[in-house]
Design goal:
Helix content: over 70%
Radius of gyration: 14 Å
Order of helices and strands: HHHHH
Distance between the termini: 33 Å
Strand content: under 5%
Length: 87
């Protein structure tokens, strides 16, 4: 990834969601060896990301997202996430 592009993403996330580059890197590192078939791991990650972004997430949305990742093994893309969060 281009260094300028990466820096612009970090700046955007910091400005829009008050998420530091360090927080992003910590989450990325925790995901590298994560077991996405383990519900507790996925649920913890979902909660962590929602908290980092300072976005409330209903239990129903959390359950739906965890179910998609763990049980159905769907690939999660932007349009799938949009559908989840519109509900």
């Amino acid at each position: 990834m281009n260094q300028d592009f990466q820096q612009s993403i970090f700046e955007h996330l910091n400005k829009k969601a008050n998420i530091s580059p360090e927080e992003i890197m910590q989450v990325a590192q925790s995901m590298q060896n994560a077991d996405f078939s383990d519900e507790q791991t996925v649920r913890g990650l979902v909660r962590r990301l929602a908290k980092m972004a300072n976005r409330p997430m209903s239990q129903q949305k959390e359950d739906h997202l965890v179910d998609l990742i763990v049980k159905k093994n769907h690939s999660i893309d932007y349009s799938t996430l949009q559908q989840i969060f519109k509900k």
